[in-house]
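Researcher: Structure for this, please.
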Amino acid sequence: MGKAEFRFYAELNDFLPPELRGRSFIYEFFGQPTVKDAIEALGIPHVEVELIIANGESVDFSYHLRHGDRIAVYPVFESLDVQEILRIRRAPLRRISFACDAHLGKLARLLRLLGFDTVHSPTISDPELVALSQAGRILLTRDRQLLKHGGVTHGYWVRSTKPLEQAREVVRRFDLRDRIAPFTRCLVCNGLLRPLPKEEALPRVPPKVREWCEEFLICASCGRIFWPGTHYPKLSAWIELITRP
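Model: Predicted structure, token format:
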């Protein structure tokens, strides 16, 4: 039986049992498993890992463990380019877009509210989510096993169970504060919104709205019309809460 010393950093510790968090510990193994196999055997999805250091040198997921190895594992730094060291994933993301699993509908709407391209359907399947990840979207899920799928190239395990906190978490995790563009996407279909001239909007909105509203937006995909109605202050408050430092 071989033994290797492992140390996981930052939020990767969320996946470990309490007694192993924030410290080095010994991992025992038979044969020569890959470091990817060892990391996932410890409960950490490979898409959460950005950098692996073995005995002082960067290695990729195919590295085979040897007795006496010292392994340090670091999380994804989407806002920090570590290409000169080693980037585990096939390609960094420069255009941020998301795919939410079937259970994260409220998070999807909040991300759209912030202006982020976010695919979601209450009937979306795991194979569809894997394919969206392979196409370059960040897969957001609370299903750790889904993130361990070998086909998932970009993904993140959402820690919180509360939608507003989930949105705050995603914004912090991927350093998105400077990319937020509120009220630019349809909350229902994810299409882009564009200004709609008042004269074109009036025949299509309720009579009371015609009396006071001067500004309208229309979704380029589904044709829904939006205006700053009674829901607007609540949505604005959500945006402020999500983006608060």
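Researcher: Any notable elements?
Model: The CA atoms of residues 29 and 84 lie 31 Å apart. The chain has eight helices and twelve strands.
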